[in-house]
Amino acid sequence: MKKLLSITMIVAFMLSFAACSSGAAAEEAPTAEEPAAEAPAAEEPVAEEPAVVDTDNPLAGKAVDENGDPYLLGYVLNETSSGWMSANLGYTKSLWERAGGEFVSYVSDYDMNKELSMMDDLKQLTPDAILVHPSDSAAIAPAVQTAMDEGYPVFAVDMAVTGAEVNSYIHIDQVMLGEACGEYIAANFSAEKPAVILEIAGGLQQSGAQQRMEGFHNIIEPLDYAEIVQTVDTGWSSDVAFDGIQDAFERNDAINVLYSHSDFMMQGILEGLRVKNKLVPAGEEGHIVLCSIDGDPTGLAGIRDGYIDAIAEHNPVLHAAIAVNVILAELYGQEYEKDYTLPVTLITAENVESMDRWANLPSGEFDSWPVMNQVVFPIPSR
Known about the structure:
The protein is an alpha/beta fold. The chain has nine helices and 13 strands. Helix 4 runs parallel beside helix 5.
């Protein structure tokens, strides 16, 4: 394992198409007048078929061992109801199975006791590698440490494990996500137009939510023209976000900015604003400036409708592509980094339609999504 690596990269979705090599073994001419009674002649060497590279699926055959047996990857995660987690799970599974491996997932629905039990259940299957996206970054650490002590390589994606050193952690800088939203607010408000901010937080028991709060506060708190008047810990619940909106505007009708830790709560946020007669598109009097994180289909629709001003993109597809390649490197005995930190892109009305946006891929059709040609950690060779 090596030291932390922060990488600035350019990501492009593309499929590489090239002519596949093909050919047949040349046939040898029969030996003339070969007596039937004689012992058979020594076998002629058989010409090998040339290797055929599946350019439509560059992962083909990558997740099988030397004997052709599939590697088993187990994924323990906290939920699949959000667009982010649904895409991350679906694409991870699709990539691993396209590589010829076997895949199993366990979803805890934020029940930490269930999540710990799932770690034990997964080990009964003797997986070749374990991937986690924990409900509680600290609470899962003992189970992760036990698995690693027993010889299982463990990888974390998006949410950290606090208290156990996993083989590799693939994530975006959650602090930078918050800072990107803070910088957007800082640039669009001033002493003449002060920002009165309501923060709709995720689950503050998770490292990701804590860091999204930290990053936003890093930018906003030094400003003399911006104030965070209330923070609502939603536990990533859209319903709690709705209730928080109602309460916050009853307390302070001067709120003119909303910062949400995730598009996952956006349905509750937008409905809450509608009920309070505060759902006004950009450019019209009374518009509430709204900045969020993720860039899921609900978030992109909000930008198109004018209700959301900016989203710090958090790309589950890129996370999955890198995680799969790093896990393959572990199974091949190759080197990789302890940490892969991904860059942040700000989505606005100007770039919302780009196919670089993960939420513009066909929803749920994971097997049709291209194998990402990313440069952070390319597909390893054996």
